[in-house]
Amino acid sequence: VQMYQFVPRVQVRDRAGNETYLLIGREPRHITNDERLLGSATDLLANFWTGGIEHKVLFTLDYFRSVEDISDWRLTNNNAPGLTERSMDINNPLFLWVSPALRDQGLDPTRPANDPGPFRHHSENQIRFSTGGAFGSWRAAYFDGRLINLLGVRREAARYERVYTVRASDASLDVPRYTDYATTYQPGLTYKMTPEHLLFLNYSESYA
Predict the structure, then answer these.
(1) Chain Cα centroid distance, residue 206
(2) Cβ distance 100 to 111 under 8 Å?
(3) Which sign, positive or negative, has the C-alpha torsion 171, 173, 174, 175?
(4) Is the pTM of this model over 0.90?
(5) Between 193 and 170, residue with greater pLDDT
(6) Rounded to an integer, what distance in angstroms lies between the CA atom of residue 193 and that of residue 5?
(7) Euclidean distance between CA atoms 65 and 33, whole angstroms
(8) Cβ-contact 167, 173 below 8 angstroms
(9) Cβ partners under 8 Å of residue 197, min gap 6
(10) Radius of gyration of the chain, Cα coordinates, nearest whole angstrom
């Protein structure tokens, strides 16, 4: 991804009360995004009878994790004169496209393909999100399956982490980490009035 970032500047007044021009800045950037996903789920199901009642028990464990690495590469006037501009008239900005050829100008052709050329590594932003939970349910069928009751419960945990590192100083900013827990329930009742007609009452909660 190669792009320009345009940053609007606030319109202000000087001491004499005169308005300044509303300016924008142009900053070529090269951004890379790498995302890794991991997930798993396991279901255990048991079926048994007590008298004339059929029981079904379900137990589920699941886990999901996402790691996203975002790297920000930028040009400066030192390595790409004329492309970085801090004050342009917002009514007449100069739009330019940073082509791959620009990255090769005046550089050693034996440079590795993953070398960003005149772009300099500005910062890294890593976002980590994970969630895991356990779900259990019990289902019982009475009167040859005409009446069925259900009771389920789920316990889940979610964690969010973000690490932002400025490569110029290798300083990592202290970004809060969040962890949340929730317990949700799923009761239900189903009655088969006739082979073609069912009467049911269900309630469920979700957690996100």
Answers:
(1) 19
(2) no
(3) negative
(4) no
(5) 193
(6) 65
(7) 17
(8) no
(9) none
(10) 30
